[in-house]
Structure formats: structure tokens, C-alpha cells
Amino acid sequence: MTYPFLKGHGTENDFVLLPDHDGSIHGDLSAERVRALCDRRAGIGADGVLRVVRSENPDPAVEWFMDYRNSDGSISEMCGNGVRAFARHLLDEGLVDTTAPIHVDTRAGVKVVTQTEDGLLTVDMGEPKVFGQSEISVGAETWTALHVDMGNPHAVLFVDDLADAGDLLTPPVHDERVYPHGVNVEFVVEKGKRHVGMRVHERGSGETRSCGTGACAVAITAMLADDAPRGTTYRVDLPGGRLDITWTADNHILMTGPAVVVAKGETDL
Ligand SMILES: N[C@@H](CCC[C@H](N)C(=O)O)C(=O)O
Questions:
Q1: Is-catalytic flag, 38?
Q2: Which residues bind substrate (predicted)?
Q3: Could you say which DSSP state residue 163 is in?
Q4: What is the helix (H) or strand (E) element at residue 177, kind and residue range?
Q5: H or E segment at 15?
Q6: I need a surface site. Which of 52, 82, 89, 246 has the fewest CB within 10 A?
Q7: How many CB atoms are located within 10 Å of the residue 186 CB?
Q8: What angle do CA 18, 78, 155 make, to 5 degrees?
Q9: H helices, E strands: number in the chain
Q10: How high is the ipTM of this complex?
Q11: Which domains does the chain have, with CATH numbers?
Q12: Which atom of ligand 1 is closest in space to residue 152's alpha carbon?
């Protein structure tokens, strides 16, 4: 039996989207099927899967739930690039009022997405949590990283050169007591005033070309290091593109960037 899929990305963090509005197609979406869809040789190929299902949130404004899975089949609370790609799909297909903010339910709460005049999408990512520091290692190299929670866990560390992170083919080593459920690790360089560059090793997906929640965690860490006033916007360059992150006076993180759907079809994977 075949079922519909779409392929999209946000700053080249790519996703297979599975429309499953009433949950009747993939209610029991298995880790095995997610891995098959995300396989870049035998499948469609992606960093993760976004199942598009109606939300059970009692607020009538919150119509859609983003059920996010990493490419290894694991579940994560949140995906920043994913929520933009998800909103782009809802807009493209007329599944939401295109003139109003879009409320997307996630395991990390409701995220509100708005369109900018230049065709980008801004997501109110909610309030971040900033914890303490711990050590992250790659091979013989160890750095001190800041623990930032964007609904999902991040360890952010500064390096002299993004190549210092190595090939990132295996996950960086973290402290299990700090991150009992694993962690996304961001390596950051300063590029200028309010401007940083990063690479990321994502929990459950390996090195990806972008991570939206990771870019938020990176901007927060850089703003704290710079003692930047609230309301400041930082530019974060990733291998797959650029995201602009603002930490508002009322302690919300706004992330602005592109998202596109590039293909759709049917599969029996
Ligand atoms: N690429 C995403 C984050 C996806 C989830 C992450 N790998 C995790 O396990 O927490 C983003 O854009 O935020």
C-alpha cells in the first residue's frame, strides 16, 4: 500500500513530511519506517520525519501537531527548522489561514509561526532554559559547553576553527548525568559583531547542515558571552544557510529563516 509524502528543508536541514491528518495512516509510525524513509541511498533521504497530524489541543487556534522523528527513528521534543518546513507545507496546501499566525503544537509546546514580507518564516520558539556548564569531548580534545534547553537539549561550545570539531562521524562524548537522554552539540566560531558560525552534531541524526533549535542555543550563548541587551538579533551562519535569532525583552526566542517544500509523491517504504 502506498501513502503520500513530501520532501522539504529549512537551511538544508531536510525532512520527509507525512500527511496523516486523522492518524489513520501512521498512528503507529515505527522507528524502522522512519529509518527507511530517511535512508539517503535506499529511501527518500532526510535528517528527520515530520508527521502532519491534527492536534488534540483544546485551543481551536492550534489545529496541527508536528510529530518529529530523528533519522535514527528516535523521537525528539522539538525541531526548529522542522517547524518552519511544517508551516510552509500547511501554507502551500491551504491547510491554515494564510493571513494569520500559525500555531503548531509540538512535544515542547505550541510554537507560533508568522510570515515575513520577504518570504521567510519567523517562529516564536518560546522561553529558553539556560543551565550550567559541562565537558564535551571529541577524540583527545575536550571543551567546556553551556547547557541550553530549547525544549530539546543542547551543549554549546566555542572553538577557534570549525574544523576543530573533526569529521563528527561519531557523536561527541557528553556527561550522562547532565544529558541522560543525549544531546545536540554545537561548535561555534565568532565571525563578527553579532555574527557567529556553527556546525552541529544532532542527537539521532549525526552532523546536519543546520539545526534551528541549535542556532537558538548558539545565539543565546553568544549573547550571554557578549552581555548583549535583550532585543538584539544575532546572525548564525550554518553550512546550509543563515538564521537570524532575537532574544526579546519578554524572554522569548524568535528564529527567522527560510523553508521550502521541494517534492511530493507516493511511497510504499
Ligand atoms: N534539526 C532540528 C533538531 C532535531 C531534533 C534533535 N536532533 C534532537 O534530538 O533533539 C532543529 O532544527 O532544531
A1: no
A2: 13, 70, 80-81, 152, 184, 202-203, 212-213
A3: G
A4: none
A5: strand 13-19
A6: 246
A7: 31
A8: 140
A9: 3, 17
A10: 0.99
A11: 3-125+258-267 (3.10.310.10), 129-251 (3.10.310.10)
A12: 10
Neighbour count for residue 74 (Cβ, 10 Å):
16
Q: In this structure, are strands 3-10 and 260-267 parallel, antiparallel, or unpaired?
A: antiparallel
**Main-chain phi, psi angles of 143, to 5 degrees:** -125, 160
Whether the per-residue pLDDT at 28 is higher than 90: the answer is no
Place of cell 492550534: 62
DSSP code string of 233-260: EEEEEETTEEEEEEE-TTS-EEEEE--E
Q: Which amino acid is at 122?
A: T
Does the structure show a pLDDT above 90 at 151?
A: yes
User: Residue 139 has what pLDDT?
Assistant: 95
Is residue 120 within 8 Å of 131, Cβ to Cβ? Answer: no
Ligand 1 pocket member 71 (CB < 6 A)? no
Q: Calculate the alpha carbon distances from 172 to 129, 141, 237 in Å.
A: 22, 10, 21
Residue type, 4: P
> What pLDDT was estimated at residue 19?
98
CA distance 242 to 254: 14
79 is catalytic: yes
Ligand 1 atom closest to the Cα of residue 77 is 10
Residue with cell 563528527: 168
- Of the residues 211, 218, 219, 243, which is catalytic? 211
Task: Give 269's contacts (C-beta < 8 A, 6+ positions apart).
Answer: 33, 36, 37, 43, 44
DSSP string, 78-135: --HHHHHHHHHHHHHTT-S-TTS-EEEEETTEEEEEEE-TTS-EEEE----EEEEEEE
Nearest to 260 by CA among 12, 3, 1: 12
Please give the grid coordinates belonging to residue 205: 541524526
Question: Ligand 1 atom 2: the closest Cα is on which residue?
Answer: 79
93, three cell numbers: 496546501
